[in-house]
Amino acid sequence: MWGILARTAVKSRMVKPCGLVRPVLATRIPGRYLAHQEGLPGLPIPPLQQTCERYLAVLEPIMETEELGHTRELVAEFQKPGGIGEKLQDGLKKRASKTENWLSAWWVQTAYLDYRLPVVVHSSPGLVLPRVEFSGWQGQIRHAAKTIAGVLDFKTMIDNETLPVEHLGGKPLCMNQYYQVLSSCRIPGLKRDSVVNYAKGTVPSTHITVVHNCQFFAMDVYNSDRTPLTVEQLYVQLEKIWNSSLETDGEPVGILTSEHRDTWGKAYMNLIKDRTNRDSVQAIQKSIFVVCLDAAMPRVSDEMSSAAAQMLHGGGSRLNSGNRWFDKTLQFIISEDGTCGLIYEHAPAEGPPIVALIDHVIEYVKKSEIVDLPTEPLPVPPKLRFEITPQITKDIEEAKKNLNIMVDDLDLRVMVFDHFGKSIPKAFKMSPDAFIQVGLQLAYYRLHQKCCSTYESASLRAFKLGRTDTIRSASVDSANFTKAFDNPGMQNTEKVALMENAIKAHRSYTDMAIRGQAIDRHLLGLKLQATEDQVHLPEIFKDRAYATAMHYKISTSQVPAKTDCVMCFGPVVPDGYAVCYNPMENHINFAMSSFNGCGETDTARMAKAIEKALTDMRKLLETTPKSKL
C-alpha cells in the first residue's frame, strides 16, 4: 500500500505504500547520480537494547497488562549479555559490513517475492487520477498518446541521469527506485517470484505493451535514430491498434496474472511451453511499461470509488480485469469514459517515485497538443499471439472465478474529506500527517472500543538502497487521547493536552523511523538472521505478543502528490482496514478498504468515523482558546 508490511511477519503494502513526506526537489549536476549514490550512508543497525525497550513500549496500548509480563521475561532473556540476541546482532553487523544495505535484498524477498497471495488487492496499489474530460475512443487514444509521451519524457531524464536528486530535511535521498520502475517485470515462480529489469541489458527495450479488448500489442515508441515518437506518431499507432482489436479475439490471458502466485507459477510454466506464447509473454515482460485502453465501466453514483476499483483490480472478469498484465511494474489505465490512473507492482519501488512520475506526466499532458503534421509511415504494431490449449482455457476460467471472488469481497471506498486540508493542522503548529494518524486512532477506537496495531510507512531513502520501515501510530499517548476524548468528565484543556502529546509522540516516532532507528526492520533482520544461522527461532518471535504486533488491523500510507489524486490498496489482514490519503491544502483524499467477509469491519462506517474524528478534533482545538498551541 505503503508499504504493505504486515503480511509475512511483515507484509508490506502497500503501500503501501508508500511514502511519508514529499521530498523537495533540488537542482543537480547532470551525470552525478552514481557519485551521489556512493556518498549515501548505509542503513544503520539500532542497538539491541534500544529496540527491545521500544518493542515493549509499542505493545502497551495493544496488549492486556497481564499478558505483557510473560513478554517482558522473553525480551529480557533475548537481550541477556552473551545470549541469542547478541549473537544475532553480531551476525547482522557482519552482514552489514559485506553489503550495500543489510536489509534491502531480504526485504524484497520476504515482503514481496516470497509472498504468495495474489498481487491484485493484496499487494499492488492503484492510483486514481482526476477524470479527464473526453468521451469516445478517439479522445481516449489522444490522451493515451500524450500520456505515453510524458512517460518517455520522464524516462529520458532517467536514462540521462538528469533527474534532480531529492532531499528531505536538507539531506539527499537514494534515487535507486526511479531506475527500477521502467522496463521491469515480476516473473512468477513455483515457490518464489523474481523481478527482472530489462533496462540494464545491453540492448534496452524500445517498445511498450498496449492492451485493448484483452488483446496485447507490442508498440515501438522510438524511431530508428532513438528519438521518441511524437504525440502525433503515437496517436496514429494507437489508432491502428484500436482498429485491429475491435472484436474480442480469444481468451483473456492477462487474467492469469491475478492468480495466487503458486497457481500462476504452475500455469505460467504450462503457458510458455509453446514458443509463440513464450515470445508473446517475453515481449510483455521486456516492454518499458503497459498501457491499458479500458472499456467504460458501468455508471454508478459513487464514481470515485468505482474508479479506484477499476485501477486496483479492473472490476472483475466481465469488465476490465482481463485487460491487464498485473506482473508488470507500471500499467497506465485510460478508460473510454475519461477515467484514468495506474496500478503498479510493488516489489521494485514505493509510492513516491511513482507519484513523482505521475506529477511529471500530468504537467506534460497539460502542455502537449496533437499537431496534425505529416510523418513517416510506421509499421502496424504486431499483435502478440497466444496458442490456447484446453489446460490454458481451464486455468483462465479458474482465474476468472477466483478474481471475481476477490472483487466481490473487497469493500473499497474513496472519500474526499472537504471540511479542511493540511492548512488547518499547520495553523495549530501540528504535523498534518500526525494529526490525521491520531484521527484514525480515534475513529477506530470509537468503532471498536480498543486500540490496534497500526502501520504507516516511513521512507528509509536517506540510506543507500533504503526502502521503508514502520511508523507505529498506536502509542500510549494516542491511547490516552482516544480513551479520553468522549469522556464528559474531562476538561477540554486536558483533552487538548492529550492530543498534543499524541501528535508529538507520532512525530517523534516518525523522526526515529526515517533515521533508521525504528524497531520493525531490525526485529525482522534478527529473525531472518536466526534462519540464516540455522538456529532455533528465539521465543520472542513465537510469542503471542509478536503476532499481535505484526497483525496490522489498520495499514496506512500517506502518499502526497501535487496532483489531486489518491492511491488505494487492500487490507493486509482479513479483519483489518487499509487507509491511504493525500493531504491537499484545503481537502484530504482518502481511499479506504476492508473485506466484506469480515463481520467486524465496515468501510462506510470507518469513513464516517474518520470524518467525524477529524472534524471533532478541529472543533476541540478551535473551542479551547486557553490551550497553549
Concise structural overview:
This protein has 629 residues and is α+β, with helices and mostly antiparallel strands.
Question: Which regions contain 5 or more consecutive residues with pLDDT less than 50?
Answer: 1-32
CATH architectural grouping of the largest domain: 2-Layer Sandwich
- Relevant CATH superfamily of the largest domain: Chloramphenicol acetyltransferase-like domain
CATH class of the largest domain: Alpha Beta
The largest sheet, given as strand count, sense and whether it forms a barrel, is: 7 strands, mixed
Structure keywords:
single chain; Chloramphenicol Acetyltransferase; 2 domains; seven-stranded mixed beta sheet; six-stranded mixed beta sheet; 19 helices; disordered N terminus
Can you walk me through this structure?
- The chain is an alpha+beta fold and 629 residues long.
- The chain has 2 domains: 3-114 and 412-622, Chloramphenicol Acetyltransferase, CATH 3.30.559; 126-162 and 174-409, Chloramphenicol Acetyltransferase (2-Layer Sandwich), CATH 3.30.559.
- Helices cover 41% and strands 15% of the residues.
- The protein contains 19 helices and 20 strands.
- The chain has helices spanning 33-38, 48-59, 65-78, 84-98, 104-113, 136-159, 231-244, 261-271, 275-286, 303-312, 351-367, 390-409, 423-427, 432-448, 476-485, 492-514, 520-532, 544-549, 603-622, and strands at 3-6, 11-15, 24-25, 126-128, 166-168, 171-172, 184-187, 194-197, 207-212, 215-220, 290-294, 330-335, 340-344, 410-417, 454-459, 468-472, 554-558, 566-568, 577-583, 588-595.
- A 7-stranded mixed beta sheet has the order 10-9-11-12-13-4-18, sandwiched between helices. Strands 14-20-19-17-15-16 form a 6-stranded mixed beta sheet.
- β12 (330-335) and β13 form a beta hairpin.
- α6 packs across α11 (351-367) and α14 (432-448) packs across α15 (476-485).
- It is globular, with a radius of gyration of 24 Å.
- Mean pLDDT is 91; it is low at 1-32.
